[in-house]
Structures are given as structure tokens and as C-alpha cells.
Design goal:
The structure holds three protein chains of three kinds.
Chain A (H helix, E strand, L loop, with lengths): L1 H31 L6 H18 L4 H24 L7 H23 L4 E2 L9 E3 L2 E3 L1 H23 L1 H11 L1 H6 L4 H27 L1 E2 L5 H14 L4 H22 L4 H15 L14
Antiparallel strand pairs in A: 1-4, 2-3
Helix pairs in contact in A: 1-5, 1-8, 1-9, 1-10, 2-3, 2-4, 2-8, 3-8, 5-6, 6-8, 9-10, 10-11
Chain B lengths: L1 H8 L2 H22 L4 H26 L7 H18 L6 H27 L4 H21 L9 E2 L7 H24 L1 H11 L1 H6 L4 H25 L3 E2 L6 H13 L5 H17 L7 H17 L1 H10 L1 H10 L1 H11 L3
Antiparallel strand pairs in B: 1-2
Helix pairs in contact in B: 2-7, 3-7, 3-10, 3-11, 3-12, 4-5, 4-6, 4-10, 5-10, 7-8, 7-10, 8-10, 11-12, 15-16
Chain C lengths: L1 H21 L17 E9 L6 H20 L6 E9 L4 H13 L4 E2 L5 H11 L6 E3 L14 E3 L4 H14 L5 E7 L3 H17 L2 E8 L8 H10 L3 E4 L3 H11 L7 E4 L6 H4 L10 E4 L8 H14 L5 H20 L10 H9 L3 E4 L2 E5 L5 E2 L3 E6 L2 E4 L3
Parallel strand pairs in C: 1-2, 1-3, 4-5, 6-7, 6-8, 8-9, 9-10
Antiparallel strand pairs in C: 10-14, 11-12, 12-13, 14-15
The chains are: A mainly alpha, B mainly alpha, C alpha/beta.
Chain lengths: ~290, ~350, ~400
């Protein structure tokens, strides 16, 4: 029994990080209808910003976090302006390829600037762990889960209650009609990218705190896993991203513990495929009715 | 009729074939005559395999309109199946039987994998299908790495069947030609039209009697077959092959080639495959900045390709248009352009 | 009319493309280049990942080799030859590595330094067979990668030998009887070490109580594996992995795995530079031929030169790269080839010389057999108080 709980806890740890990363992904996709493949690399840039701010500029942790959020948001907005906006009329696959180009660009730029050796993320936050009936829950896990839940709730409120949120929903449904209603599509999408990238910066804090070491290619695989989690939960759905991330983490840890670490990759993706076949729009995705 | 023959000889498909023939003829002369640089000849088999991969992925992405991120998985299934066959028959069968046999076996094994991957495709669309194909690629990679017969993590030792460019080139050429011919014929046939109809409007196609299930499966199986055959040859050009090389990064590489070449365009896929594989090699002299320059070029090319202003410029400054301008004068050229409409 | 033009244009484009590619290099090997002051130049070609996920390994390899090349040239070269190092990027990808080999041959490479990783080296060695060129790989350690080519040699240990040596060391020094193993199941270095280690443990009567693996897709979170190792009650954890993943494991296991001895191989070299806090790796043991703070004069001068040039302490990959260059210099001396008498028998003589030399390198004293393997001793090191010292039991 205690093993079950322990595996569940480690699943939550891993899953919470995936969830936080998936939130940014899903937000951008939900509004701009584009897959920002470079999201994982924006997380990497956020992590490096904190490392530079704390270790080299010796700034206090809060300032470092704010700088990281600012850097990521600016980066997201710049990338959107330079690489994605000109392609707004283009087929979505073209935008995907450009996103891949941006992803490679960020990785290689980071490689040139920071070198390929791993850097340690500074211990800027420490959370007390909780002991529940003999099983210890890491402080970081609790913090990540809490922050993810808070962000999810505030994002949902933001999208449904505020005017800007309504504008985002309008843009996601029909860009042309939104423009006719007086909504500035450009500004809305720029804002979406800014928020999505800021979320990436937050994700990088918890990623760094949990896994400590950062390299230029750190963002790539987690980016793919976040994408998987977002789709799993139903892409475009914010609660779906959180659910998808946590489920992915739990499935991964359970398969590693109870089946085998050798086959865990195959099992995780196998389960994913099965669930998607059963529920083609993801766990919480909306069923899109096709019009003839 | 003479006009009909002339049309066919100068048709777009024929142009593609001439282009490929000319390219391979030139390359063969260079390689067999000994004038090719080592650098060039070591790239040839790899580029040919990527052309076959791109043209086969073009069937899924360009013609069927579905995003497939697991194409490298099919290549690896074909590679291991074909190379294992080759290793076991290296003493008993002559090369001319062994290699095509390996390619056929590899292609068939990959086709089987394609069938399995195609089944979820029947229910899924768009990004969901992309994730499923990605997952299938990872599953294939994980399974092959854990099997003993494929060498496991140490990789398959293919030094017994390792062959140089000069030996493999004829087979690679045959592979590329067959792949391109099959795809071209498919595109022009009623099956191709059915597939493109599914891409453009599935419901309308279905209501017109197009068997969507059948065609979707055919697409996955056929594209996997050629990827597998390409994989079999690819394996023969190395002494050690690991399943880990064939991950989603390679799938994305092939996808980039297809999209860059223009989706649905076989000609484009061929040219883009050559350009994108040769480009990093040509940039070797600026090795530190090579990948950075590559990624910037990729972004620029995508921006230029997709931007409507550039498409307009491309039309006005294309070689055909310039020829017309020289021949007929500026005003007349514009008039003929307008009256002919777009090709 | 338009279509015929299109056809001709396509043919013209094809011709241009071919011309561009073909013009990339000359058709054959160029003779040894001569510098302005009359001394000839020997081109040494290295291949390894300089960009991408594994960039630090290729970069280390190249940097170590470059230090040696600079030292040799500063001392006046060897037999009238100046060394030139041309290190090409392969991103760890065999495709790119074989193309890099082709490019190096076009550039007139005289001696090949093989590849950095075993997989790419195996393909390079196969491609080099037709050229009969001497291939001396510094860091590729799988057994199979230099087989099949009589001209291929290596500077580092091969994995099966290291795995067996580790098991023997643990048994001989009574370090533990219950052993857990943690390794990457999709990495050839780790699997090569693990297979012989496990086999040797069986013969020696050591009990392997737990085996845990991870893959490159799951190399950030090790909590499941750490929990399993803790439950098994192992006294020693064998880590046949690289320093980067080991640093992650040790950081995540701190506080969870108590009273456990960590034992690794040469892949753990450089662990101290990678962790955030040296206390995390206190007591970690490794079987490695290179120790950056050995008091040996050679080693110290290498380390000083490396730190001055690149700002970090050199690791195993750099040390092997350094020794590879000096080995080539020694072979050149032994073969008696000078810039005047360099001819077509260059490759033959160099290969023959390899089995006759003894090199006192920073990774130990090395001699080579006809199979290309080197004989040198590995030492057991332990990390104490933030430095790596010789383990004295």
C-alpha cells in the first residue's frame, strides 16, 4: 500500500511539472491555433535567465524571477512578431516548421552563449516537505501542484470573465469575425504569446528547482512531453492541460515501478495511443462538430 | 496524337523524371569515373534515402493532409528487418539478390507497422493523430532497443554487410526512381484523386462513395513500405546502426523537407531533400555556427515561401516570366500572363 | 513552349546543383601541405559532436587534442612535421560522421582520430578500411567498433574489460556483497559495461540485488529508481553511466540513499565539475585511468595548460584526446618518417609502428596489440572533500 502511495506521489511530482508546461502550450494553441514548438526552449531560456541573474548578477531571487518572466515574455512576443505573424494566412503546417526552426535557433544560440556543459539552477526557493502517514511528499511537488492549480484557476477566470479573455475566445473561434467586431487580432495574439511565455518562465522555476541541472537541450524532451500532455488532456482546454500533465506523470511513474523501466517509454505512449483511440479529442477536449 | 505525346513528354511529371535522371547520371559519372570528392560520394546514399523518405511522407502529409511524426519509426523497422535478412544471407546469396531482397523484406515489415499505425488514424485527425504517430515512433524505438536480436543498445553490427557508395548507388537510384514513379502515378490516378478528395473535404468525399477507411490505410501502408525499403539500404551504408538514431528528431527532419518542398509536390520534395541534406554539409567550414545558420535559413525560407508577397514576386520573376518578358516585351508579357492564368 | 523551357531550366538547375556539390572538394588526396618556412604539415582529422545534445564530449575531445597539437608544434614539431588538427562536427550522428570522414579525406587527412562515440566510430572505421589509413580513436569504447580493420587502434579502455575489472575490484577489495546497478538502457557505453559486469559478478559470487534503468527520454526524474534501490537494501550502487546523469542521480538521491557506496567507471570523470554542491558526491568511487589532480608531472602540466586555455578542469575525453596526439607523434618517431621521405608507404609504416611503441600518457602507460586494444592500468579513485584522490582502501 505504501508503495502505491509513494509511486502516486512521485507521479504527481513529475506530472505537476508537465502540467505547468502544458498550460502554456495549450493557452497559445487555444487562442492562436498554432503549436508553438519552441515552448520547451523558452522554458530553457527562462531557466538560464534565472541562473545568470542569481549566479552572475547576484540579484535577489524575487528580482531574478521577475527578470526571467520579463525575458520570456519579450522573447515570446518577438518570436511571434518575427516568425509567426507573417505566416498567419499560411497553412498550419508551415507555421509548425517555422516553430521548429525557432526551436533549433534558440537551442543553438544557447549552446553558443552558455556552452554545452550543464549549469546548476540556484536554490532560490525551498519548500518544506510534508510527511503523511510515513510517506514523505517533497516540498517542491506541493508547491508546483499548488501553483499549477492557482494558475489554472486564474487563467480560466481570466478567459471567461475579463474583456481581454473574451477577445481571446473570440479570436480563437473566428479571426475574421472578431476583427469585424473591433477586436485587434494582432494585439490579442501578441498578448496570448506574452502570457504563454510568462507561464513558461514560471514552469522553468519549478523545473529548475526539481531537477537542478540545465543544458541548452533541456527544453526539448520536456517540450514534447508537454505537447503530449496537452493533447492528451484535450488541446485548447486549460483544465485539460493540467489533467493531461498529471495523468502523463502518473502513468509514467506507475509503468516504471510496476512493469519495467526498460519498457516505460513504450508503455506510456502505448497507453496514450489507446486512450486517444477511445476518446479521439483527448480527455477533456471538446467534440468538434464538422459542418458539411 | 503528336500534341498529346509532346504534352506528356513536357509535363510536370516528366520534368521531375528528367531532373532526377540528369542528376543521377551526372553523379554516377562523377562517382564511377573517380572525379567525385569523398565528401560528395559519402553523402549520396544518405541523400537518396532521404529523397525516398520525403516522397513517401509527402503521400501522407501532402496528399492525405495528415500530420505524421513517426516516419522515422517506419524507416527503422525496415532497416532492422532488411539488414537482419542481409546479415543472415550474406554468405549464401549474391549481392544482386540479397539487396533487393532486403529492401523488399524491409519494406514489407515497415508496411505491416504502417498498417498498425494507420488503424488509430481512422479515428483521429490533426494534432491528435500527430501525437499518436509520434508515440508510435517512440514505441518502435523503445521496442527495438530492448530486443536482443537487433543488438539492443549497442546497435546492430552491420559490418559484414557494409558496402561503399559505389556498390549501393545503383540500388539507391532504383529505389528513388521506383518511389517517385509510384507516387507520381498514384497522384494522377483515380486513387490519388480520391486521396486528395479526402484531404480537401472528407465528408463530401465520403458522400461521393470514396472508401475513406481503405484509402487512409493504403496511404499509411504504402508510405511505410517505401520508408522501410529506404531504411534497408540506409543500414547497408553503416557499420553500426542504433534504433535511437531514428527518433522524432529525424521524423521532424523529413517533415521539414516535405513542407519546405511544398506539400503535395513530389518535385519539391526531391529538391528540398537534396538541399536540406546538402546544406549542413556545405556549411561545415563555419562549423561553430553551422546549426545556427541552418535554423535561421529554415525560418527565412519558410517565411519567404509562405508570404503572399513573395509568391507574387516568385511569379513575376520566375524563369518562365523572364523569358516571356525578353521575348514579347514587358507589356505583352503581362498580358499573356493574365490571359494564361496560373499554372 | 513554356513547358520545354521548364524542362531545360530543370536540367540547368540540376547541372548547377551537381557542379556545386562536386566542386566541394578535389577527387583525390592532396600531398602534404608545406608551410611558408619549409616544414611540412601532418593533417590529423578528428570527428565528434560539437553541437547538439552531446556537444561537451566532442568539445572536450577536441580541446585536449588541440592542447597536445599546440605543445608539439611549439616544441618544433616531430621529424620536421607540424601537426594540424581538423576536428569536424558529427552531432553524434553516424550519417554526419561518415560525411565528415569523407570531407577530411578530401582535405588530405594523414591520420584519422576516429570518432568520439562508439557508434559513429564503427562506421568511420569501416569507411577507412579501403583507405588503409591509421585510425586511432581516443574515446570510442565499444568492443566492436575497431574490429574488422587492422589499422584501427584505441586509446581508451574497451567497455567489456572495464565492466569485468570493476567487478573484480569490488570483489578483491571487499567493498560490498549486495550490489545495485543503475544505468541507461539505451546507451551503448552503459550496456557494454553492465553486461560484462553482471556476468563477472556471477562468477565471483557477488549478488546483484537490484537493476534499475532509464532512457534518454526519462533522464530527468529518477525517483522511482531511487525508491527501488532503497528498498533492495543494496550496499553499493554500480553506476556505469556518464557524469551528467550521475550528477542528477546523486542530487536526487541525497538524503534518500544512506550508507551506500557509489562506484562508477571512467564515464564518471568530471563529476565534481558538474554537481552544484561537492558534498553530494562525497565518497563516490570510480575506476579510471585519468585523475586531474594526480601529482604526476605530465598530468599537472596538461591540466594547467588546459585550464589556462579553456577555463575548466579537463575530463577523461580531453585526456584521451591529448594522449592520442602524443601516440601519433610517438608512432611517427618510431616509423622514422620525416618530411623528406613521406611517401605512399606512410600508412603501412604508421600502422606497423603502433604495435612497437610505448607511450607514457596522462591516462597511463600504453602499449598496443595487433587487435588495436591498449594495455594500461586503471586506478581506483575516490572523491574526498571536493577533490579526487587515489583510493587507498
Amino acid at each position: 500500500m505504501i508503495y502505491l502511495v509513494r509511486t502516486l506521489i512521485s507521479g504527481l511530482s513529475l506530472g505537476s511539472i508537465y502540467a505547468l508546461m502544458a498550460l502554456g502550450y495549450t493557452m497559445v494553441y487555444g487562442v492562436a491555433k498554432m503549436l508553438n514548438f519552441a515552448h520547451g526552449d523558452i522554458i530553457m531560456v527562462g531557466a538560464y535567465s534565472i541562473i545568470v541573474a542569481v549566479s552572475q548578477a547576484h540579484l535577489p531571487p524575487l528580482a531574478a524571477v521577475l527578470i526571467s518572466v520579463a525575458v520570456c515574455a519579450c522573447l515570446g512576443v518577438t518570436v511571434e512578431f518575427l516568425a509567426y505573424r507573417p505566416l498567419r494566412q499560411a497553412p498550419p503546417l508551415n507555421v509548425l516548421i517555422t516553430a521548429i526552426g525557432v526551436s533549433y535557433f534558440l537551442q543553438n544560440a544557447a549552446l553558443l552563449v552558455f556552452g554545452s556543459e550543464q549549469k546548476a539552477f540556484p536554490a532560490i526557493v525551498s519548500f518544506p516537505s510534508l510527511s503523511v502517514g510515513g510517506v514523505e511528499i517533497d516540498g517542491i511537488t506541493l508547491a508546483t501542484l499548488a501553483v499549477t492549480a492557482v494558475i489554472m484557476a486564474s487563467l480560466t477566470l481570466f478567459i471567461s470573465k475579463t474583456r481581454i479573455g473574451k477577445a481571446m475566445r473570440a479570436v480563437s473561434e473566428d479571426k475574421g469575425a472578431a476583427e469585424l467586431m473591433g477586436i485587434s487580432v494582432n494585439r490579442t495574439i501578441t498578448l496570448t504569446f506574452a502570457v504563454g511565455s510568462a507561464l513558461a518562465a514560471v514552469a522553468s522555476i519549478f523545473f529548475g528547482a526539481a531537477y537542478v541541472y540545465v543544458r541548452p537541450t533541456t527544453g526539448a524532451m520536456p517540450g514534447i512531453k508537454a505537447f503530449t500532455a496537452a493533447v492528451f488532456g484535450g488541446i485548447g482546454s486549460i483544465p485539460g492541460a493540467m489533467l493531461g500533465g498529471i495523468m502523463l506523470g502518473i502513468i509514467e511513474q506507475f509503468s516504471k515501478t510496476y512493469i519495467s523501466t526498460l519498457w516505460s517509454d513504450a508503455i506510456v505512449f502505448g497507453v496514450l495511443v489507446l486512450i486517444l483511440v477511445v476518446r479521439p479529442t483527448g480527455l477533456l477536449g471538446r467534440k468538434l462538430n464538422e459542418k458539411v | 496524337m503528336k500534341a498529346n505525346l509532346k504534352n506528356r513528354l513536357c509535363s510536370k511529371n516528366a520534368v521531375t523524371l528528367y531532373f532526377i535522371t540528369a542528376l543521377y547520371l551526372a553523379v554516377s559519372i562523377l562517382v564511377y569515373g573517380g572525379w567525385a570528392s569523398r565528401h560528395l560520394s559519402s553523402m549520396l546514399i544518405s541523400i537518396s534515402c532521404y529523397i525516398a523518405m520525403a516522397v513517401s511522407l509527402n503521400l501522407v502529409v501532402g496528399m492525405l493532409g495528415e500530420l505524421s511524426l513517426g516516419h522515422a519509426g517506419f524507416m527503422s523497422v525496415g532497416l532492422f528487418a532488411g539488414c537482419l535478412f542481409s546479415i543472415y544471407t550474406v554468405g549464401t546469396l549474391p549481392l544482386i539478390v540479397r539487396l533487393p531482397g532486403a529492401m523488399l523484406l524491409g519494406g514489407s515489415a515497415a508496411a505491416l507497422a504502417g498498417l498498425v499505425v494507420g488503424l488509430p488514424a481512422l479515428r483521429l485527425k490533426g494534432d491528435y493523430l500527430a501525437i499518436v504517430t509520434l508515440g508510435c515512433g517512440e514505441i518502435i524505438k523503445n521496442v527495438i532497443t530492448n530486443l536482443n536480436i537487433t543488438g539492443g543498445a549497442l546497435g546492430l553490427n552491420t559490418s559484414t554487410i557494409y558496402s561503399g557508395t559505389k556498390t549501393l548507388l545503383p540500388y539507391a537510384i532504383a529505389l528513388v526512381f521506383i518511389t517517385v514513379l509510384v507516387m507520381m502515378n498514384l497522384k494522377k490516378s483515380k486513387h490519388g484523386r480520391a486521396i486528395m478528395a479526402i484531404r480537401d473535404n472528407r465528408i463530401a468525399a465520403e458522400s461521393n462513395g470514396v472508401d475513406v477507411t481503405y484509402y487512409k490505410l493504403v496511404v499509411f501502408v504504402l508510405s511505410a513500405f517505401f520508408a522501410g525499403a529506404a531504411g534497408a539500404i540506409y543500414g547497408h551504408s553503416f557499420a553500426n546502426v542504433k534504433a535511437a538514431t531514428f527518433d522524432y528528431n529525424m521524423s521532424i527532419e523529413v517533415l521539414v523537407i516535405v513542407v519546405l518542398g511544398g506539400m503535395g509536390s513530389i518535385n519539391g520534395a526531391v529538391i528540398a531533400a537534396i538541399a536540406l541534406k546538402a546544406l549542413p554539409e556545405l556549411l561545415r567550414d563555419i562549423s561553430d555556427y553551422r546549426m545556427l545558420v541552418y535554423s535561421v535559413l529554415l525560418i527565412l525560407i519558410m517565411l519567404l515561401n509562405s508570404s503572399p508577397r513573395f509568391a507574387d514576386m516568385k511569379g513575376r520573376w520566375s524563369i518562365g516570366a523572364m523569358y516571356k518578358m525578353l521575348r514579347y516585351g514587358r507589356k505583352a508579357a503581362v498580358e499573356t500572363e493574365v490571359s494564361h492564368g496560373h499554372e | 513552349m513554356k513547358r520545354t523551357k521548364k524542362t531545360l531550366c530543370a536540367l540547368a538547375a540540376a547541372a548547377m546543383l551537381i557542379g556545386c556539390l562536386a566542386g566541394c572538394g578535389s577527387g583525390g588526396k592532396e600531398p602534404a601541405a608545406t608551410d611558408g618556412d619549409g616544414s611540412a604539415s601532418l593533417l590529423l582529422g578528428g570527428i565528434g559532436p560539437l553541437t547538439g545534445d552531446y556537444a561537451n564530449y566532442g568539445t572536450s575531445n577536441r580541446n585536449g587534442a588541440q592542447i597536445a597539437v599546440d605543445e608539439i608544434n611549439a616544441a618544433g614539431g616531430v621529424n620536421g612535421f607540424n601537426f594540424t588538427l581538423d576536428f569536424q562536427d558529427s552531432q553524434g550522428n553516424p550519417d554526419s560522421a561518415v560525411a565528415a570522414y569523407g570531407k577530411l579525406m578530401d582535405n588530405g587527412m594523414d591520420v584519422s582520430l576516429g570518432g568520439t562515440f562508439s557508434g559513429e566510430t564503427q562506421s568511420i572505421v569501416a569507411a577507412a578500411k579501403a583507405d588503409s589509413i591509421l585510425v586511432l580513436t581516443a574515446t570510442a569504447s565499444s568492443k566492436a567498433c575497431i574490429e574488422g580493420n587492422d589499422c584501427a587502434f584505441r586509446v581508451c579502455f574497451n567497455d567489456p574489460a572495464q565492466g569485468a575489472a570493476s567487478a573484480n575490484y569490488i570483489a578483491d577489495n571487499n567493498l560490498a556483497t549486495k550490489i545495485a546497478v543503475f544505468y541507461a538502457s539505451d546507451n551503448d557505453y552503459c550496456v557494454g559495461l553492465y553486461d560484462t559486469f553482471a556476468a563477472e559478478c556471477e562468477t565471483l559470487g557477488l549478488e546483484v540485488v537490484e537493476v534499475q534503468t532509464f532512457t534518454s527520454s526519462t533522464n530527468t526524474d529518477f525517483s522511482t529508481q531511487i525508491n527501488a534501490i532503497k528498498d533492495s537494501g543494496a550496499e553499493l550502487v554500480f553506476l556505469p553511466i556518464y557524469a551528467a546523469e550521475a550528477s542528477t542521480l546523486l542530487t536526487q538521491a541525497s538524503g534518500k540513499l544512506e550508507n551506500v557506496v557509489y562506484f562508477g567507471c571512467d564515464g564518471l570523470d568530471g563529476l565534481l565539475t558538474k554537481v552544484s554542491d561537492p558534498a553530494l558526491v562525497e565518497g563516490v568511487m570510480m575506476l579510471t585511468p585519468f585523475a586531474a589532480n594526480s601529482t604526476d608531472e605530465n598530468v599537472q602540466s596538461f591540466v594547467t595548460a588546459y585550464e589556462a586555455a579553456y577555463g575548466t578542469v579537463p575530463d577523461q575525453f580531453a585526456a584521451d584526446g591529448y594522449d592520442a596526439i602524443y601516440t601519433i607523434a610517438a608512432a611517427l618517431q618510431q616509423a622514422g618518417i620525416t618530411s623528406e621521405n613521406k611517401d605512399d608507404t606512410f600508412n603501412e609504416k604508421m600502422v606497423a609502428a603502433m604495435t612497437q611503441i610505448t607511450v607514457e600518457g596522462v591516462t597511463g602507460t600504453m602499449t598496443w596489440g595487433a587487435d588495436g586494444e591498449t594495455s594500461k592500468a586503471a586506478q581506483a579513485m575516490i572523491i574526498r572533500d571536493g577533490t579526487t584522490v587515489l583510493y587507498e582502501g
